[in-house]
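User: My collaborator sent over this chain with a note saying "see what the structure looks like." That's all I know about it. Can you take a look?
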Amino acid sequence: PFAEIVAMISANIFRSLSPTNEFPNDDEDEPPVELAWPHLQIVYEFLLRFVVSNDVEPKVAKRYVSQTFILQLLSLFNSEDVREREYLKTI
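Assistant: Without extra context I'll predict from the sequence alone. Here is the result:
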């Protein structure tokens, strides 16, 4: 099931991020938010529970988590949505 889990996570959280706003509007008090956050939050919660689960043997899971997966995960730190970056820090 590890291959399917990694594939599901990859299909749901890895995406092109919207370009960052280099010239923020001073009138905007609200930080940018990801419209798909309700869906993403479920996937991040699943990933977090998978990572901390006592039922997952790290040596076995490591076979399915590639360097590409890790690099794509790290690239999500470029998200403008603070909620996503906080989940990534927790994971």
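A starting point for your reply to your collaborator: The mean pLDDT is 89.
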